[in-house]
Design goal:
This protein is of the alpha/beta class and 179 residues long. The protein has one domain: Rossmann fold (3-Layer(aba) Sandwich). The chain contains seven helices and six strands. This is Isochorismatase family protein.
């Protein structure tokens, strides 16, 4: 069975800049997974610091309004890995999931860490590169012109253990109701 992970699609991130295209792809994938009877699991990053926009009681930590209606299963985490000290692995095993699709935010942190952690736990992992987004850019890392999604996708692809696709490739390969 397949599962779609929607990582950190929270107000504080999604409202940071224009992620309209990424949210649209994620929503289409959610619909496809649900129609196929596959699992959709949202991951919500939380922080104990009351000043943080990720504090559990802050509006910014909530799942973004555009996707909230789909968030029937939500796993809370406190680190970049959606597996570390969470119930995610337990839930996936309970549902009989063996193939995980990665979408969400921030590409180079939570999405990448979760993809690697999933592989380490024996899951087949498909990383949908352009259905991830990040608030960061090349200046964040003092690497002008860096395309973070492309860089992370290339590194994961070169690993030869994590499948990296763009959304259109996902549609061709996996989408149940192809457009």
């Amino acid at each position: 069975m397949r599962a779609l992970l929607v990582i950190d699609a929270q107000k504080t991130i999604v409202d940071f800049k224009d992620f309209h295209q990424e949210i649209g792809m994620i929503e289409t994938m959610i619909t496809d997974f649900k129609e196929n009877g596959d699992q959709v699991i949202f991951i919500r990053n939380l922080d104990d610091d009351e000043k943080s926009s990720f504090h559990k009681n802050s509006a910014g930590s909530e799942i973004h309004d555009s996707l909230k209606k789909y968030a029937e299963i939500v796993v809370e985490k406190k680190t970049p890995s959606s597996f570390y000290q969470t119930e995610l692995d337990e839930k996936l095993k309970q549902f009989g999931v063996d193939h995980i699709f990665i979408t969400g935010f921030n590409t180079e942190f939570c999405c990448q860490f979760t993809a690697i952690a999933a592989y380490d736990r024996g899951y087949k992992v498909t990383f949908i590169e352009d259905a991830t987004g990040t608030v960061n850019d090349g200046t964040t890392y003092e690497m002008e012109g860096l395309d973070i999604r492309d860089f992370v996708g290339t590194v994961l692809h070169w690993s030869s253990v994590i499948e990296v696709l763009d959304y259109e490739e996902y549609v061709e390969e996996y989408r149940t109701n192809k457009v």
